[in-house]
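User: I'm writing a short report section on ligand binding and want a predicted complex to refer to. Could you take this sequence and iron/sulfur cluster and write out the structure as tokens? A short remark afterwards would be nice.
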Amino acid sequence: MHGASQTGIPGRKEVIRRWKEKGGLVAGVFPIHYPRALFEAFGVLPVEVWGPPSADPGPGSSHVQPYVCSLVRNSLSFVHSGDFSLVDLVCAPHGCDSLQGLGSLLTDFIRPEVPVIPLYLPRGERREALSFLAAELQSTAKRLEEITGKNPSAEEMERAIEADERARELAGELLQRRRELPLSTEEFYRVLRSREYLPAEEFSKLALAALSKKGAHPEGIPIVLSGIVPEPRELLDELDGMGALVVADDTAACGRRLYPAGNSSDPFVRMAESILSGPPDPARGASISERADHLLALARSSGARGILFYETKFCEPELFYLPLLRETLTEKGLPSTVVEVDVGEPLSGRVTGRISAFLEMLQQ
Ligand code: SF4
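Assistant: Sure. The structure tokens for the complex follow:
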């Protein structure tokens, strides 16, 4: 897990320490989709594990084939690391075959000493998806009740859901107003991604502070950033250095989780509605045409001139979509480029060179 930040935003370990001092439990949550509010209602702080990039890949590599993505490999390394002692439980949502493999390894083979909650997500737009996911969230709540000994009231549940919805709304506003915010790309993503480990209300305060910052507007060639997660983080400074400005986000870690608020009076249905109505994502079985329409709309509304698909190597769900998706985008006049990275390795000259050439092309 990352250490303290130098930007005034508390780091993961500090937030975990404070949370535990107040008697709360911490869940290590693997990507991608899950109900943050449900965990917070039980006094459990979800701290997401996207890699982590700093993990020694060795221990993880011994569990998976070399063609499994670095996100899953490093997640397995994290389970064997000293930082794993900070978590009291683990949640492993099923987002792709590799994540499903990760969940199975945890429940059937590695069996860490802390409880593991698998979370099954429906794929596609089938009619039963909503009731399936609501039931799945109910059984997650049962597990949380067994683990924490708590049973949040309807009001406590509603408060947690509303705080989470507000946090997401503010994350959406940060992205919508990106061009006005006097933050470097790295600073901007540090704020946005602090939602991966901050309690909802703390994130909302931080987002409001960022939204009220005054100063020179950032400039650059406007692009949409797509892919799984902007790691390694040096990408963000590199983008500034190359003269790019990320004006819209379609990464699985950020933009694809800007779920709108749900409507139901039943808290489980409300959380399920919310996740299922999020932006189209291969991990939820979206069609290529839905993905294309969404990306075209994002580019139009943000004024982006092109899309950088910043992909994790061996990420089958993403790579499977790209040929047809990019063809459709090109036909509609939206250029794109693809680079593939390992979250734990420094950016290669080949990757930065390709991004730089793409930006030059967009400028012409
Ligand atoms: S990077 Fe791709 S393959 Fe790896 S866990 Fe994420 S979605 Fe699955």
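A remark for your report: Residues 1-6 have pLDDT under 50 and may be disordered. Residues 12-154 form a domain with the Rossmann fold fold (CATH 3.40.50.11890).
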